[in-house]
Design goal:
InterPro entries: MFS, MFS_dom, MFS_trans_sf. By secondary structure, this protein is mainly α. Helices cover 78% and strands 0% of the residues.
Length: 416
């Protein structure tokens, strides 16, 4: 029933242009919160790979564990955050707790020093905060616009989010330039403290400007653990959950992509954060247009094209050709992958979820992806260490192709 509309929902009304006014002030406010928060988050994530691999000399396997933890630690807490938000109908409050928790961990990174265990613990707590906030935030977006504009709304939000992600590494570089060293403990601590101050501003914006919009309480249905567990009994939700997990296994993580790119192009360590800048610039430019395109021509085709772009990124990393044109194309395609998949996948999911459990349902899909990403990151690190980078990238390409085929089988409507 639900699958007959997947990837075909079109906006046939008067929303041919993507205007901030049409999207709604609440979506823009949530975008502003994400923008500021992502400046803070990307300041840390932009320097973390070189800090761990080149500074603390972690092996690919250990880095894979840490990198997987960076996303995988959100998995169970996404479900908890989604369920609490649906149960209490206080989505803004649950999201706010998550944002505040992530902000506090930036100071924890300073206290962690060079301890890998302590850094891992801070990363886990930071990701707990992200897990709590992500599903309630996305649910607020779905409640702020008509269904026909979900792609545009998520596109605008992700464009603002990626603006922060674009600026974060530049701010980190600026802090390192002021300190005068890119490798000292004081330099990294300065980035962490600056990141905390910016994250605190994001929490303040959420408190002051985001409304906890409430749809009318459904006359049927209830929020309970039993009801949440029944979500996967619906064929549409179950197939999307499986597809999301399979697609999550195809992504190896930003840190690995950038480390491989630096190794191939022989870029100096000091410029490493600029890889994230290039990716997020492409994401920023493409997020809103691809969201509008998904509303008009279908969300599933846009998502699958995004994974096609990811396969091209892996092929370029494995190929013999190098140089600045290849570097620019690689980062552009990587940004296009995120722009075509991140918000668009949530827009694809939302319409098939019952209103009373929408946040829980979004969290369920995101949890599947987070677990899959954790497994993918660990396996890629292991393959790199055992067989070398070339073989590991080849396996990643095969994983993307497999994921696209399985997703097509699961989600393309059957002809009657």
């Amino acid at each position: 029933m639900y699958l007959s509309t997947i990837g075909r929902r079109e906006n046939r009304g008067t929303v041919s242009r993507c205007k901030l006014g049409a999207i709604g002030s609440n979506v823009v406010a949530l975008g502003a919160v994400s923008l500021v928060t992502d400046i803070s988050a990307e300041m840390v994530s932009a320097i973390l790979p070189i800090y761990l691999v080149l500074g603390l000399h972690l092996s690919p396997v250990v880095y894979g564990l840490v990198d997987g933890l960076y996303t995988g630690a959100t998995a169970l807490l996404r479900l908890v955050g989604g369920y609490l938000a649906d149960r209490t109908r206080k989505r803004k409050t649950v999201a706010g707790i998550g944002y505040a928790l992530s902000a506090a961990t930036k100071l924890g990174m300073v206290a962690a020093g060079g301890s890998v265990a302590a850094i891992g613990a801070m990363i886990a707590v930071d990701r707990v905060g992200k897990g709590l906030r992500t599903a309630p935030r996305d649910a607020l977006i779905t409640l702020s616009v008509p269904e026909s504009m979900l792609g545009r709304a998520f596109g605008v939000h992700r464009a603002m989010d990626s603006t922060g992600a674009f600026a974060g590494p530049l701010v980190a570089l600026g802090v390192l330039a002021v300190i005068g060293s890119s490798v000292s403990v004081d330099a990294f601590n300065a980035v962490f403290v600056s990141s905390f101050c910016i994250a605190a501003i994001g929490v303040l914006l959420l408190v002051l400007f985001v409304r906890d919009d409430q749809a009318p309480r459904p006359s049927v249905g209830s929020v309970s653990p039993r009801a949440a567990l029944t979500l996967l009994r619906a064929a549409g939700v179950r197939r999307l959950f499986i597809a999301a997990c399979v697609l999550g296994m195809a992504a190896i993580g930003d840190g690995f992509v950038y480390l491989l790119l630096q190794r191939k192009e022989e870029i100096a360590t000091v410029w490493f954060p600029l890889f994230a800048v290039g990716t997020n610039l492409a994401y920023l430019v493409l997020a809103a247009p691809l969201g509008a395109l998904a509303d008009r021509f279908g969300r599933l085709p846009v998502v699958l094209c995004g994974y096609g772009a990811l396969a091209m990124v892996y092929l370029l990393l494995a190929g013999p050709v190098s140089g600045w044109p290849v570097l620019v194309i690689t980062l552009g395609l990587y940004g296009a992958f995120y722009a075509a998949t991140d918000g668009v996948l949530m827009a694809l999911v939302s319409p098939i979820l019952p209103e009373v459990l929408r946040t829980t349902g979004i969290a369920l899909i995101q949890t599947g992806q987070a677990f899959a990403y954790f497994v993918s990151s660990v396996l890629f690190g292991l393959a790199w260490q055992v067989w070398g980078a070339g073989m590991a990238i080849g396996l990643a390409v095969c994983a993307v192709v497999f994921a696209i085929v399985i997703t097509l089988v699961l989600l393309v409507p059957r002809r009657q």
